[in-house]
Write a structure and sequence with these properties.
Chain lengths: 278, 225
């Protein structure tokens, strides 16, 4: 360990302890129960935030510490959530009455079909495939896990086929066929009420024209079996413009989302940790 | 056994789920298979957890580069896992939700995982800012459209944008920046999104068919015998 690393580590530890004591005293004054723990947790949260932000300087050991901790905690979090919500919440109540009783979950009794098939037996299928998936850890029998993988892939393909066909294809096409003459009461009425009001007839009509032509031209841009020249090329060009607006809007929204997260973290540091702002 | 059985399983399950939409007695299949998927996903989480322990323990045992950080990962993983699986500090009984307020699981989530998660994403704000500096140059018509669109959306969300054009008369209200942002989102942006969605929909349908029919086999990996 270099001298600099030792000095930095000592500084971080001293700052951490100082912050812990300070926050614990603050919590004690505010009459918070378990003020020592509260002080530790707020300090921990602040230091982890700063550790991640330290990446802006460069990749460093403090950032790596926080990054590795994040990986470990996230894995543990999703495993626990999956166990309690899916295995205990959905699987056990269908497979075992005694285990349901142990976990205090309402038993979900199945039905006998034709007197020889119990409907809940089908829930052994994912259990078997789940166990087969764990065979991946074995170097000799790892190939058996492909069966479970095939089941997952087949299920996804079957479900997504229908879902995307309905929501991303048929629904989107049907929603594109909008009235191009909105609230039409004759040309005289149209010109006498001409305005750029956000709720006006002209804006509504222009919007619908853009939706209809935009989708059409956007699709033309994605159609590569014909050369983009002439009228087809012009439509494709308009399609690119529409797509550029979409990318710009998505970009704007992404920036706003990230900045609001950053504001949240900065607010935490300055208000909850340092107590500088109220 | 190694290639034919998985292909048959995919064909059977995929076809059954598509057919179930058209055969009323099989309608429940869709809901059940979603649950089956979730159950197998939990086993996959356990597989992932087991793998994580194996990889990091090996790294620590062999003292590979940066092995100290593997200890941190293992510590975080075991801490969160034991708090969650054994419901340590949970004020309720075994039937209580795993993230009941006051439990270790919820405390670690709130004070460690959540700050790490949001700061990790917040970090992207800086990189997005640097990317915008490079991307937001009106070099040609397309780049200008992207720039203007993003600018309208960004300004439309801020009080400054509202203030800039609040003097506009009602007859021109669509030119007020917040209204313009709404219009951009609900009209040209919607058209672009729809064109992309239709493309994605067609792609997914095509890929699903390729998988079900066994034309696409890359998910099976390499055949080693």
């Amino acid at each position: 360990m270099s001298r600099l690393a030792i000095i930095v580590t000592i500084c971080v530890v001293v700052l951490f302890l100082g912050s812990w004591i300070f926050k614990a005293l603050q919590a004690q004054d505010a009459g918070v129960d378990h003020y020592l723990l509260r002080g530790f947790l707020v300090t921990c949260s602040a230091f982890l935030t700063l550790a991640i932000l330290s990446f802006l300087y460069k990749d460093n050991p403090i950032y790596k510490f926080a990054e590795h901790l994040y990986v470990g905690i996230s894995a543990g979090y999703w495993m626990s959530q999956g166990f309690w919500s899916t295995i205990v919440g959905n699987l056990i109540p269908r497979l075992s009455q005694s285990l349901s009783g142990f976990f205090k979950q309402p038993y979900n009794a199945g039905e006998w079909m034709g007197g020889f098939f119990y409907t809940n037996w089908v829930f052994y299928v994912p259990v078997i495939f789940g166990v087969l998936l764990l065979m991946r850890l074995s170097s000799k029998y790892g190939w058996i896990s492909r069966w479970a993988l095939a089941f997952i892939v087949g299920t996804t393909a079957g479900l997504q086929f229908i879902r995307y066909m309905r929501s991303d294809f048929i629904e989107q096409i049907s929603s594109t066929f909008v009235p191009l003459l909105v609230d039409w009461q004759g040309i005289g009425h149209f010109f006498s009420n001409l305005s750029l009001s956000a709720t006006g007839q002209l804006v509504a009509m222009v919007s619908n024209w853009i939706i209809f032509l935009g989708v059409l031209c956007g699709l033309i841009y994605f159609f590569f079996s014909k050369e983009h020249t002439g009228l087809f090329g012009k439509a494709s060009r308009f399609g690119i413009w529409i797509l550029m607006v979409t990318f710009g809007a998505s970009f704007g929204y992404t920036v706003m989302g990230r900045v609001s997260l950053l504001v949240g973290r900065i607010t935490f540091l300055f208000r909850d940790w340092l107590g500088i702002t109220s | 056994m190694k290639r034919q059985v998985p292909l048959l399983i995919t064909l059977f399950v995929g076809t059954l789920l598509i057919v179930s939409v058209f055969v009323p007695p099989l309608e429940g299949m869709q809901e059940n298979s979603t649950l089956f998927f979730d159950i197998i996903a939990v086993f996959a989480f356990f597989l992932g957890g087991g793998n994580l322990i194996r990889i990091h323990l090996t790294k620590v045992a062999r003292k590979k580069g940066d092995w100290e950080y593997s200890l941190v990962t293992l510590f975080g993983f075991l801490l969160m896992l034991s708090s969650g699986l054994f419901k340590i500090g949970n004020p309720g009984d075994i039937a209580a939700a795993v993230d009941t307020p006051g439990s270790w699981f919820q405390t670690i989530f709130f004070y460690m995982m959540s700050p790490l998660n949001s700061t990790m994403y917040a970090l992207l704000a800086f990189f997005v800012a640097s990317a915008s500096y490079r991307a937001f140059r009106a070099k040609n018509r397309e780049a200008t459209i992207l720039l203007v669109s993003a600018f309208i959306i960004l300004l439309g969300q801020t009080p400054f944008g509202t203030m800039l054009t609040s003097w506009m008369p009602d007859k021109f209200s669509v030119l007020e920046i917040p209204n313009m942002a709404v219009w951009v989102m609900s009209s040209p942006n919607l058209a672009g999104q729809r064109a992309i969605l239709i493309g994605i929909g067609l792609g997914v349908v095509g890929m699903s068919l390729r998988i079900i029919l066994g034309i696409e086999r890359t998910y099976l990996g390499e055949d080693k015998g």
